[in-house]
Amino acid sequence: MQALPSNISTQFDAMMSKKAVPARLRPAYRTLLMDYFDFRRKNSLPESRSEHVRLFVQKLREADQPQDQQKQAASALSLFFATQPKSGGRVIYPPVWNPQQPAASPVQHTSHYPAPKRSGKRYDEWWCLKKTKSPEWDAVIDALSAEIKVRHYSRKTLKAYAEWSRKFQIFLADKSPSALTPGDVKAYLTHLAVKKNVAASTQNQAFNSLLFLFRHVLKQDFGDHKDIPRAKKSKYIPIVLSPREVGEVLRELPNPYKLVVLLLYGCGLRIFECLKLRVQDFNFDNGILTVCGKGGKSRTMPIPQKIKAELLEQFDRVKRLHEEDLAAGFSGVFLDDSLETKYPSAAKDLIWQWFFPQQSLTHIAGTRELRRYRLHEKSVQEELFAAVRRAKLTKRVTCHTFRHSYATHLLQAGYDLRTIQTLLGHSDIRTTMIYTHCIPGRPEKEVKSPLDF
Prior knowledge:
Layout: H1 6-18, H2 26-42, H3 49-62, H4 67-82, E1 86-87, E2 90-91, H5 135-150, H6 155-171, H7 182-195, H8 200-217, H9 243-251, H10 257-267, H11 271-275, E3 282-283, E4 288-292, E5 298-302, H12 308-327, H13 339-342, H14 346-349, H15 368-372, H16 377-391, H17 399-412, H18 417-424, H19 429-432
Antiparallel strand pairs: 1-2, 3-4, 4-5
Helix pairs in contact: 2-4, 3-4, 5-6, 6-8, 7-8, 9-16, 10-17
């Protein structure tokens, strides 16, 4: 058996030293890593790293390898994956190394810009953070990322602002950032409004992104852009489902997607709020759910009593699976952002997310629930789209439609706008008032005088 490539071997040895792997086990870990590369070269494996661990350990189990060796294999792969880079929260999967071929040199970008389009490969939503042929702009994007992280803005904000900055770079054909002027911004925003016919919200997002870029990164005066053509803001009325239509969609959804949609409709959650829920957010004694929404703002709402039994059943089910995985040597779970540093051992603290969104990953061996249901915003949206088609609804239904339906049905039930605003987490009452357009008003002849109440 040939030795590991020097770059892989060096990183792997450093990680074993960092994690204090006993010296007597290190040769076995290296051998198991070699076996993993051979296993991966011979088999077509999914992208999920946790699936790599599960399938490799399953292969050892089928070969009647001892239980200790199976646990060592899981630990060795966890250490190896920890040496692999990440980009903007997206895990970069390690290349398949063929031991019969020399190790390849690091791949350099051959195109001018990382293409944000689908071309038969998985779409890279963090293309905007990749390196280009312009070191000056790469430094600007790095500074932009740092400024956003210092302010604790969300990952979606980072992604949106970085994408608009990259598109601005492409529009200006790599013009030096030090030579940018307010006229360049005006030309680009005019291009979006006149040539691209973008929506008002899209143009406003581009404007805010470039404003942040100029003020906080380039430290330049943004100038006065009152004369820039602005897209006309449309008067959008949300699409709302009736209770009957909600029931029809729910009947077509399998679990756990059905439980996700029940929470979207029953609590008026945004999809990202629902997928970030953790066990400790549920207070069943008081019937209160705590949600962390946009901008890190938290709010509380009542837990729907109708789905309390299903929630408790899901909790017990995931806990059993988690304990089984811990017993089998699969320790570690997904934790959001800095929580993975605060709680390095999920086996000790039992802090785990019950829907397991694909966030930053510290411990590669996730629970069996994660391996069975890779719940992510896109997977929920795709399953919901299929369920709506099976239910034969003619309305355009998205995950956010259930939040609109929640607010409208509360309004129809007689709840005041201020209460609904608090439950939805809106900062401005004008955002909540849009739901008044979703219910029919009373004719003037039916309106009573306060004297007649």
